[in-house]
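Q&A log
Question type: sequence-to-structure
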Amino acid sequence: MLPLFYIFGAVAILAALSVVLQQTPVYSALSLIVVLCSLAVVYLLLGAEFLAVIQVIVYAGAIMVLFVLVIMLLNARRETPADRSRMARWLGFPLLIAFFGQILFATWRHFSGLHATPQMAAGPKSIGELLFRNYALPFELTSVLILVAILGAVILAKKQV
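Response status: OK
Response body:
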């Protein structure tokens, strides 16, 4: 089981890098589907079958269909190096350093024993209670954010036609 965990963890990391490094939005979306399915396998290996199924149905299924729809509506083309903004050029490297610093800090904290053990949800009932009691506001804000992003994409696509 442990070798499978590491294999699918590595696949998820490589596919996540592919999401960021791809120049074509459709290929990035396909790489994101690989990431989400790899995470579902990791959830299965950790014994969280419900989360694995939800990962595939909700994220790899429904959300990715919305992403691909928005990409097709915007008629996004291949990105060229000239398309990148000046701010992205200046902030890219410092943000990359900060990202790797966060990863190193989290790894150090995990292996040094300074972290608290996370509480695992027992099943769908406890996940639902956590989601709609403790995290209701972030859940609703995320759904509104996705709705606004889709509406913005439709408006942008309509102006181009």
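Response note: Residues 86-112 form the longest helix (27 residues).
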